[in-house]
Amino acid sequence: MKEINVAVTGGAGQIAYSLLPRLVSGETFGSDTKVNLRLIEIPQVVDKLQGTIMELIDCGFEQTGKLIATSDIKEGVKDADWVLLVGSIPRGIVIDGKKIEERSDLLKINGGIFTDQGAAIGELAKSDAKVLVVGNPANTNALIGMNKANNSSQQWFAMTALDANRAKAQLAEKAGVEISSLKNMVIWGNHSPTMYPDPYNATIDGQSAAEVINDSRWLEDDYLPLVQQRGKAVIDARGASSAASAANAAIDTVKSVINPTEEGDCFSAAVVSDGSYGVPEGLIFGFPLQTTQEGKIEIIQGIELNDFAKAKIKITTEELESERQAVADLIS
Ligand code: NAX
User: Fold this and answer.
1) Which of 136, 192, 285 to mutate to test the pocket of ligand 1 (most atoms within 8 A of CB)?
2) Where does a domain end: 127, 158, 189?
3) What is the pLDDT of residue 94?
4) Which stretch of 37-46, 68-77, 98-107 has the lowest confidence by average pLDDT?
5) Which of 48, 86, 132 to mutate for ligand 1's pocket (most ligand atoms within 8 Å of CB)?
6) Which pTM value belongs to this model?
7) Is residue 87 in a domain?
8) Which partner for 158 in 72, 105, 138, 153 could form a disulfide, CB atoms 3.0-4.6 Å apart?
9) Which residue in the list 191, 230, 312, 324 is annotated as catalytic?
10) Total structural domains in the chain?
11) CA 86 to ligand 1 centroid distance, Å
């Protein structure tokens, strides 16, 4: 069997609980690959991971390799092929008597975490390591981590696959078609309520989803907020944020990166902008991506954007620019 090393931060959190079994079951990396898993947590929580490890052993998957729990990020990411940065400090937490509600404060606090993690990954993870940031604010955490890693042969992604899955599901329901009919779902920009889920370029059985649905009022006034606010709707209904669907989206992203993209389809994730579609260079931005037969990740070019799309992409770009500004001292 082949062997790979996968590091996961936030290993005791609720997303990790759904994610970890699927990483070591053969489903994600293939039945011919043994997965050595390093679970990383803050020191106050790291002991709890022993329980998680017991459960993973009790699953009895033959693809499960060595299982380690640590609060030392360097030990966790050493020789990692994949690093899934799931852990972060949530909005609303009280630190030094102050409730953290402002996005700018959240950016700074998490920025501190992602500088150390980025530096350790750049130095110690494999030279071709792939890094997926799930912890929010995901795009800007990835920006900080990637800059601190300063290792251009590694590749950083921020997760927008959950948004893409939500966006597909809503279109499929409205059009009354199977979810498998939906292709080319692009989430442009930030993983935040400014994201632009693109119904014009998404296709239903090869035809523009917007044309099939043929209801621009619904698409522009109802559909966008439905997708953009879906995370909040789950919290309101469940009393906790999306976990199983977030874990599923992380698995989808890993699979999309390691397997060639089907002809006529794309996958959604945020990667560093090279200036494509006029997006300022260096931002971690949600683009349409494909994995080539040779395993290269490319931003798909030539997608047409109508005026509505351009206006929405401008808003999410401006938000990411202002986030970059807020953490300028962490990425210089
Ligand atoms: P939980 O609060 O259940 O778990 C987070 C875990 O991270 C905790 O166990 C905590 O101890 C750990 N942690 C904090 N700082 C750490 C550090 N420096 N090193 C290692 N571990 C650390 O949150 P959960 O529901 O699992 O969500 C995790 C993150 O995903 C949150 O930031 C959340 O906002 C984000 N999400 C991102 C999504 C996306 O699509 N990109 C969707 C789902 C989710 O909201």
Assistant:
1) 136
2) 158
3) 76
4) 98-107
5) 86
6) 0.97
7) yes
8) 138
9) 191
10) 2
11) 5
184 and 122 in one domain?
Answer: no
Told to judge if 191 belongs to the known catalytic residues of this protein, a careful annotator would answer yes
Question: What separation in Å is there between the alpha carbon of 284 and the centre of ligand 1?
Answer: 19
Instruction: Write down the pLDDT at residue 179.
Output: 97
- Give ligand 1 pocket residues (Cβ under 6 A): 9-10, 12-16, 40-42, 45, 86-90, 113, 134-136, 138, 159, 162, 191, 231, 241-243, 246
Q: Considering the chain, what percentage of its residues have pLDDT values greater than 70?
A: 100
Q: What is the pLDDT of residues 97-121, one digit of tens each?
A: 887 777 778 888 888 899 999 999 9
Would residue 204 count as lying in a domain?
yes
Given 95, 124, 158, the domain boundary residue is 158
Secondary structure, 3-state, the chain: CEEEEEEEECCCCHHHHHHHHHHCCCCCCCCCEEEEEEEECCCCCHHHHHHHHHHHHHHCCCCEEEEEEECCHHHHHCCCCEEEECCCCCCCCEECCEECCCHHHHHHHHHHHHHHHHHHHHHHCCCCCEEEECCCCHHHHHHHHHHHHCCCCCEEEECCHHHHHHHHHHHHHHHCCCHHHEECCCEEECCCCCCEECCCCCEECCEEHHHHHCCHHHHHHHHHHHHHCHHHHHHHHHCCCCCHHHHHHHHHHHHHHHCCCCCCCCEEEEEECCCHHHCCCCCEEEEEEEECCCCCEEECCCCCCCHHHHHHHHHHHHHHHHHHHHCHHHHC
The pLDDT value given to residue 332: 78
**Which band of pLDDT confidence, cut at 50, 70 and 90, is reported for residue 91?**
confident
